[in-house]
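Checklist before submission:
- one chain only
- standard amino acids only
- sequence pasted in full

Submission:
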Amino acid sequence: MTHNIAYFITPHGFGHAARASALMAALLKIDDSLRFHLYTTVPQWFFDHTLAGHFEYHFYETDVGVVQTNALAEDLAATVRKLDEILPFCTDCIGTLMHGMRQNRVELVLCDIAPMGIAVAQALGLPSVLVENFTWDWIYAGYVEQTPELARHISYLKKVFAAADYLIQTEPLCDPRAADLTVPPMSRAPQKSRAETRSALGIAADAPAVLLTMGGIRWDYTFLRQLFALPDVHFIIPGAVETGLEKRDNLVLLPHSSPFFHPDLIAAADAVVGKVGYSTLAEVYHAGVPYGYVTRSNFAESAVLENFVVRHMAGLPIAPAEFESGEWVAKVPELLALPRRKHTQPNGADIAAAWIMEEIGG
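Returned file contents:
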């Protein structure tokens, strides 16, 4: 018998979708009869690596998050405008989603961290599970002083998030609360060996390689020429081209959507450089490779993530201006010299999946 689960996923970058994918993959390891109904605007292809054949995609704007001008900068005025359009959730929107979920015989609603799913679950009388290391009311509170208009949405969102039947918090935690379950970082697991991925990329087994990643939000890599100054180091750069795989001397340029699974790229690299975000941190943490993390002083989650890297990972901080200018390239030898730091802690996705099946699955 097939059991249907709805998952509402914020489109704020790819990080929440990656965490949701990790949890769904872990649930499928326990029961491969599950079928997921994904409500999000994150591209459908993103979920194919982990969920192929086990999900139905519903393109639906369920959440705003924070509008970005690029991977490191927010547009707060645009964020307020979008929030004004979507909040409070309209009765017709909730009704449309209810109708579709009834037709699909949905039995459980998961949310990362799109609150609309909680509102729909309440209306249907279905159990809801909120998976988070922060909620949007907490993030918006950090911007209220400079953008007071956000205040009118914080209390509403706080009530919606509080209405979830179950709360799973994932480390690193931004706002620790009384949760039903707290787990270590959730991460998608690699599917191929380091050797397989390197062979497909055209990188020798013993050649140093660095992965650049900006978390699914497009970035203009203006410093590519500076990477030629380290000809012995291979740089793997997803999102640098529109299609295919392009080799330029020591550069391997990939599109956002490529046959390469992102955790496989991390496992094939000797170091990762990129924006400090939840899913990148979690996947680098479980891989144990050094992390050159680009800091974001204006986004409240970043300080928590940075502190986690300092305490538990091998890493070097990179300031945004340093990253944009390419000055960080001079730090690559130091980054590659850092020892790997493997962890014995289990994947939080496996713990959360087992708990969901035991506590709610029946």
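Reviewer check: Residues 3-186+347-359 form a domain with the Rossmann fold fold (CATH 3.40.50.2000).
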